[in-house]
Specification:
about 15% strand, globular, 12 strands, 10 helices, alpha/beta
Length: about 325
C-alpha cells in the first residue's frame, strides 16, 4: 500500500504519486495505442495509485476521461479523480473559455465521459484572460453546491489569481509545473499554498521524461514528439541537463535505486508538495514510479548531494505547459 495524504482541508486521501493522464492520449507522444494506454491506467491502480489526474481537453474527443471511465469504472469508489475545465480543442488548436456557462457544460460532459456522478477535484485548467477569475470560481462553487464536484482546484496561476479565486470558492489544490530544475513556485505560489492549507499537486516531476535518465545525449526526437519545443531539450540546456543526470545516476546507484525513484522521492518530500503527477504511456513506466514513495533508504542525509548537484547545474531556462 502506498501512503496517503490529505487533499487540502477535505477528508479525501490521495497517494503522493498520482497518474497524470495526458500522455495516454498520444497527442504529443509517439508509440501510443488505446490498448496500451488502458493497460497503463489499470497498472497504476494495481500498483497502489488511487489518484488519477485528467482534463476535459486531454484528447481531441475526451479520450483520457473516457479511458478512465472504461478501465476503472469497477473500482470507482476506490479512486480519486481530478479533472479540469476551461480549455478545449477547435480544429486541433487549444482554446481558452472559462465562462460559467462553458465550465458547467464541460463538467457535465466530463462526468458523462467518466461514467460517474461526481469528481473529487475539479480544476480551472488555466485562468482565462477574457473572463474575470471570480466568475470562473463562482461556477465551480456552484458545481460543488450541486454535488457534482467535491473540491476545487486551480492550475497554472499566479499568487494573485490564487487569492482571487479562493475568495470566491475555497481552494483545495493548486497544480503547477515543478521539478528539480523548475522550482519557481518555491518563492511565490508554494508559500501561499502552505499558508492557506492548499495542496500542491505538481506536474512534470520527471520533466517530461528528461529526469528519468533514459534519453541518451544523441537522442533524435520524432517530429511528432512535443518535447523538442521546450528549452530543456535544446542546445546548451540539453548538454547541462545530461551532466546533471549523470550526477543523479551516481547518487541513485549509491542507494541501490533508479534515477526516477530518486527524483520522485525528492519531489514529494519537498515542503508543501502533496503529490507528484507522473505521466505514463506504458504499464512499466507507471509501475516503476508507483514504488517511489516506498523507497527505504531515502532520508535527509541523501538530500545534500542532490542539493549540491542542483546548485552546480545552475539557473535553467524554464517554460510551462500553458
Amino acid at each position: 500500500m502506498q501512503p496517503r495524504r490529505r487533499l487540502g482541508k477535505t477528508n479525501i486521501e490521495i497517494t503522493p504519486v498520482a497518474m497524470g493522464c495526458w500522455p495516454v492520449t498520444g497527442i504529443t507522444s509517439v508509440d501510443v495505442t488505446r490498448e496500451r494506454s488502458e493497460a497503463t491506467i489499470r497498472a497504476a491502480f494495481d500498483a497502489g495509485i488511487n489518484f488519477f489526474d485528467t482534463a476535459y481537453m486531454y484528447g481531441y474527443d475526451g479520450e483520457s476521461e473516457k479511458m478512465i471511465g472504461n478501465v476503472l469504472g469497477d473500482v470507482r469508489d476506490e479512486i480519486v479523480i481530478a479533472t479540469k475545465c476551461g480549455l478545449h480543442w477547435e480544429n486541433k488548436a487549444s482554446i481558452s473559455n472559462a465562462t460559467p456557462e462553458r465550465i458547467i457544460a464541460e463538467c457535465d460532459e466530463s462526468l458523462k465521459r467518466l461514467g460517474t456522478d461526481r469528481v473529487e477535484l475539479y480544476y480551472l485548467h488555466a485562468p482565462d484572460p477574457q473572463v474575470p477569475i471570480a466568475e470562473s470560481a463562482g461556477a465551480i462553487r456552484d458545481l460543488m453546491q450541486a454535488g457534482k464536484v467535491l473540491s476545487a482546484g486551480l492550475s497554472n496561476a499566479s499568487v494573485g489569481e490564487l487569492a482571487e479565486f479562493n475568495a470566491v470558492c475555497s481552494l483545495s489544490a493548486y497544480q503547477p509545473h515543478y521539478n528539480m530544475l523548475q522550482r519557481e513556485i518555491e518563492d511565490s505560489q508554494l508559500p501561499w499554498c502552505i499558508e492557506n492549507s492548499v495542496s500542491t499537486m505538481v506536474y512534470w516531476p520527471l520533466m517530461k521524461g528528461l529526469l528519468a535518465g533514459k534519453l541518451p545525449r544523441d537522442h533524435e526526437f520524432d517530429p511528432k514528439d512535443g518535447r523538442q519545443k521546450y528549452p530543456m531539450f535544446q542546445g546548451e540546456e540539453w548538454k547541462k541537463n545530461h551532466v546533471f543526470i549523470d550526477r543523479l545516476r551516481e547518487i541513485a546507484a549509491d542507494i541501490g535505486h533508479s534515477v526516477p525513484d530518486l527524483v520522485i522521492n525528492w519531489t514529494i518530500r519537498q515542503s508543501g508538495i502533496t503529490a507528484a503527477l507522473c505521466g505514463a504511456k506504458r504499464p512499466e513506466q507507471i509501475v516503476e514510479t508507483a514504488g517511489a514513495p516506498l523507497l527505504a533508504h531515502f532520508h535527509k542525509t541523501r538530500s545534500a548531494p542532490i542539493d549540491q548537484a542542483i546548485a552546480d547545474r545552475g539557473p535553467t531556462v524554464s517554460r510551462g505547459a500553458v
